[in-house]
Amino acid sequence: MREPLSLKKLIVTIIMFAVSLLFLMPFFWMLSASFKMESDVFNFPIDWIPKHWNAINNYKEVWFGQYPFYLYYWNSIKITVVTTIISVTVSALAAYGFSKVQFAASKWLFLIVLTTYMVPSQAVLVPQFILYRFIGLFDNHIGLILIGSFSVLGTFMLRQFFMGLHNDFIESAKIDGAGHWKIFWNIALPLVRPAVATYAILRFIWTWNDYQNALIFLRTDKLFTIQLAMQKFTSLSGEFYSLIMAAAVSAILPLLIIFIIGQKSVIEGIAMGGVKG
After folding, report:
1. CA distance 209 to 65
2. Are 82 and 236 in contact (CB under 8 A)?
3. How far apart are CA 237 and CA 34, in angstroms?
4. Residues 6+ away with beta carbon under 8 Å from 218
5. What pTM was computed for the model?
6. Neighbours of 26 (CB within 10 A)
7. What's the rounded Cα separation, in Å, for the pair 22 and 17?
8. Exposed, middle or buried by CB within 10 Å (0-12, 13-18, 19+), for 261?
9. Which of 147, 250, 254, 275 is 20 to 30 A from residue 240's alpha carbon, by CA?
10. Those residues with Cβ within 8 angstroms of residue 72's Cβ, 6 or more apart along the chain or in another chain
11. Which candidate, 89, 96, 124, 128, places its Cα nearest to that of 110?
């Protein structure tokens, strides 16, 4: 039977709903402004539903104007998807190796890997820049993909979940003649799927929002990501807030889609972490 709704729960629900609306109001205003004529953007009180719609012209200017977003979108999607696939694969394999494969000095090796996370990324930018120019990875997407493809945080995060798997699963598979690759692919990975999906979503968001590395390692305009395009577009159209809001909505739309699709896996990953071990 359903538990009756108490007065305390009702009050808490109303408060949480009001707080959530407060956090969502900037997004609603941004979305509304992207549909308006420029003269109506700063009307007060706010016209949440535009009186004069100009969405087609605003988004047409953003996507096919002087700075065509379709090109920068393709660049960001390509870099983000490839980086996410490589990073999740490498982190999952490393995490399984550090948690379930017994070899000499495994704990010390993992500790060495973990200590590299203590070094701020800004501290290695100059030597990284010099190295990339020397080996020919400067000003191309391959270099930018490699920067985000190896994550100590991802390895550490997934290792904790792999450690939560009971060793009886591994030992039973070994008795049946399975090797580590088959155990990883057919047994271990499906059991930690929510954690892997959670990290994949986080990696996608981090890579999509990466402004620093794109700013430093890209110089050619046609190679720019959506974050650099936003900065240039803002400089070009700083007085047209309806266009800036249309560009901002376009920039965050993939993140909303990814989170909506993957929110179930994120919740499962959090719940799995709460009961791990």
Report:
1. 23
2. no
3. 13
4. 139, 144, 224, 225, 228
5. 0.82
6. 9
7. 9
8. exposed
9. 254
10. 224, 225, 226, 228, 229
11. 96
- The tens-digit pLDDT sequence of the chain (277 residues) is 455 667 778 888 889 888 888 888 888 888 888 888 877 777 777 777 877 787 788 888 888 777 778 888 899 999 999 999 999 999 999 888 888 888 777 788 888 888 888 888 888 888 888 988 888 888 889 988 998 888 888 888 888 888 887 777 777 877 777 777 888 888 888 888 888 888 998 899 899 988 888 889 988 888 889 888 888 877 776 677 788 888 888 888 888 888 788 777 666 656 555 545 4
Helix (H/G/I), strand (E/B), else coil: 53:
strand
Residue with tokens 């591994």: 170
Contact 101/179 with Cβ under 8 angstroms? no
What value, to the nearest 5°, has the Cα angle with vertex 152 and ends 147 and 156?
150
Coil/strand/helix, residue 36:
strand
Q: Tell me the residue length of the chain.
A: 277
